[in-house]
Amino acid sequence: MNNCCGFLKQKYNFNCQGIGPAGPRGFSGPTGATGATGPTGATGPTGPTGATGPTGATGPAGTGGGPTGPTGATGATGLAGATGATGVTGATGATGPTGATGATGPTGPTGPTGTLGVNNSMLYVRSGTVGGTGTQDNPLPTIEDALDLINDNGFIVVLSGTYPVPSTINLNKNNITISGKPGSVILVTANTVGFLINGEGNVLEGLTFTSDNAYPSELLQIGGNNNIVRQNIFYGPTQAGSSEFWVANRGIVTQGSTLNNWIDGNIFYSLRQAGYLNPNSTGFITHNVVFNTRGWVVDQALFQFSGNSWGSPSNAVDIALLAGTTTSSPYDSLTELQENNSSATISDQR
Length: 350
Description:
With 350 residues, the chain is mainly β. It has helices at residues 2-12, 143-149, 334-339, and strands spanning 122-125, 155-158, 161-165, 169-171, 177-180, 184-188, 195-197, 203-205, 208-211, 218-222, 228-230, 233-235, 250-254, 261-264, 267-269, 273-277, 282-286, 289-291, 296-298, 302-306, 309-310, 319-321, 346-348. The model is unreliable at 1-5, 14-20 and 61-69 (pLDDT under 50).
């Protein structure tokens, strides 16, 4: 009670003298009206923070508010962290053992040996062979056999040997090359044309043409166009006395009106005439060597002579221009014709 009196005296300047013991508490009277709020006293020291009460319900969001401030600049990206080490590769398992090899089966029987086919674009000939097929190892026996089998644009190789010709060998295919090896001799054994070229674009080279007797015919006759006769040898058997009286055997004869045939690089000797060029046949006679004959006979033909030469014994004449042969090109200057052919001796009968 003293404490209470002290508090009232201090707080409200209350006089506590004469106060007896307190009686029993009566009923509380009605609360009086609230007096005017006195001036706020000085703030006392802050007491300890009480326990946090329960969170109340969230009120509705306000509609006001200031404008949103600008977004701050994005910060720099941090450095990438180091890559973690690769894990260790697991060890490969051991290879299992190889199974045993099975037994080898028996070898089947060998099939029959095939035969080497003949190439009909390349045939070989050797005189005297028997049963040849035309290969290099098994050549045909005659040139006629090869001509029967050869394809157009084919090649016939005539191997060394003597090839008797009792009747004319007829080349009537086109673009065939007949090439003789050294020592391949075409021997005419009857009064007949030895070799006749009726086809076109053929080549005859490297052969030797002769006869066993002096027959009044030619070793080679050309009846087609655009053929080439080159690097062959044409000769006849020896005839006694003056060539004026020899049997009229000849190396080459061109048929009339055959065109553009080329006779190049051949040798002609011991014949009545190296060649007889019939009317209207044309071509070239170049780089041949002619001796011990009565030369080339031009009978109204048109051949360009160039680079030919003459051996020993000399010819009776080198070039004879018969009556009716043109006086113009290619013979319009006899001097040039002579000079272009090793000072040829020319008999001009035009």
